[in-house]
Amino acid sequence: MDVLLLGVLGSLAAGLMTTVGALPVLLGRTVSARASDALLGFAAGVMLSASFFSLLIPAIERAEGLYGNVLLAAAIAASGLLLGAAVVAFANEAVPHEHFTKGHEGPEAHALKGIWLFVIAITIHNFPEGLAVGVGFAGGGVADGTALAMGIGLQNAPEGLAVAVALLAQGYGRLYAFGVAALTGLVEPVGGLIGAAGASISAPVLPWALAFAAGAMIYVISHEIIPETHRRGSASLATAGLTIGLTAMMVLEVVLG
């Protein structure tokens, strides 16, 4: 089978696992403020763990493999991370947020803006994962590409759940939360197509893309999500949720790695 098609299909399968992970919210109900903060904390923990284990560490490893220099690899990862955080920070200040908060005012509007920034950051992070799958099929063959797609796909399941519960916690309907979570994974086949089509070009870009996505997510988690979970007096519950989410994702990453 053509390597281009394999790259697209492999990254599509990985992206669809986001949809699978979001399925439990279809059984969910309206949540209390305390439960909302705990769920948001869990989502933040999942993505904080993914930022390091799925993005930064692979960025360093791939850069070191390309250039054979661990200091250069660390510098690339650090630069990409800072760039990702800076771009999201600039967008957060410069871009109007009326489309995020229409019909809402005050703290509620701020919370909604933060959730949508969270969703956008997760979508950004899915692109370099798809790129990695495409490069894997083009550069490493079917076996390497398939193993990479399976690993990323299994990691995507809790990420899909994180997006869905974050939206559900802010009062969005179950189908809407599920649908948005599913859509965040559909950028992966786009990355897979680009990665497979131009593996020689994509490979040097991949460490930067991975680190950039990590920086974007870390900024949103720290600037928006964690402050939101502490705003209503549920800091301890939110911290417990974050710790559980981070631990669960870390174990999954290590087992699959």
Written overview of the protein:
InterPro entries: ZIP. This is ZIP family metal transporter. Belongs to the ZIP transporter (TC 2.A.5) family. The protein has 257 residues and is an all-alpha fold. The chain has one domain (3-19, 31-256). 87% of the residues lie in helices and 0% in strands. It contains nine helices and no strands. Helix 2 runs antiparallel to helix 8. The longest helix is centred in the middle third of the chain and has 64 residues, at 106-169.
Nutshell version of this structure?
With 257 residues, the protein is mainly α.
Task: Describe how the helices and strands are arranged.
Elements: H1 3-22, H2 33-67, H3 70-94, H4 98-101, H5 106-169, H6 174-184, H7 188-197, H8 199-230, H9 235-256
Number of helices: 9
SSE succession? HHHHHHHHH
What is the helix fraction of residues, given as a range?
Answer: over 70%
Rg over C-alpha atoms, rounded to the nearest angstrom: 18 Å
Question: What are the defining features of this structure?
Answer:
257 residues, globular, membrane, ZIP family metal transporter, transmembrane helix, transmembrane
